[in-house]
Write a structure and sequence with these properties.
alpha/beta; 37% helix
């Protein structure tokens, strides 16, 4: 099913390729060199050898995010992408504690609304926090609530997942990216 749907999604987002139309140099750099980086990284050959195409694609994105952010703590309740997170930042601790998080991965298949409310209540989100929401098409309303929340800053809609940055000093934008 993934391979049947993928070309149609890609064609519908053709105007959003490789950061075209993004005016902010910082946001453009993030899209070009973190989200849509096409050069092979040093560990791509060994990472996720038994993974399918979708998991490998997302795993490599998570690897690049961890490599870019170099977080101390990562919140990910699933062991699926642990190998990618650890390869991207060896010093990172993968935890379920919501106190002072820098990189968070949530899956919309789970109870994300409850997790989102707990994260907001914990006070552990700051300008260095990056939230990755997988399967954002499952609950479009919640995705829009998170994007429009005044505590969030820049957000990226990658169709398969969404990335939210919490730096509120910058102008709030939601970019649609062909990933």
């Amino acid at each position: 099913m993934y391979w049947l749907k993928r070309p149609f999604v890609w064609m519908s987002r053709i105007g959003h390729c490789r950061g075209f139309g993004i005016q902010s140099p910082t946001d453009y750099w993030f899209v070009r060199y973190v989200i849509n980086e096409h050069w092979p990284y040093y560990l791509y050959e060994t990472l996720g050898q038994g993974d399918g195409p979708r998991r490998r694609k997302l795993g490599r994105l998570y690897f690049r995010l961890a490599n870019w952010r170099q977080p101390q703590t990562i919140l990910d309740t699933s062991p699926l992408y642990r190998e990618y997170w650890q390869a991207g930042c060896r010093k990172a601790v993968i935890t379920s504690d919501t106190d002072r998080l820098e990189l968070i991965r949530l899956d919309m298949k789970d109870d994300v609304r409850g997790q989102w409310k707990r994260l907001l209540a914990s006070g552990g989100l700051d300008e260095r926090t990056v939230l990755v929401l997988e399967n954002i098409r499952r609950d479009k309303r919640l995705w829009q609530e998170i994007v429009s929340d005044p505590r969030t800053g820049i957000s990226y809609d990658l169709y398969d997942c969404g990335i939210v940055l919490f730096d509120t000093k910058r102008h709030k934008r939601n970019y649609i990216i062909n990933f």
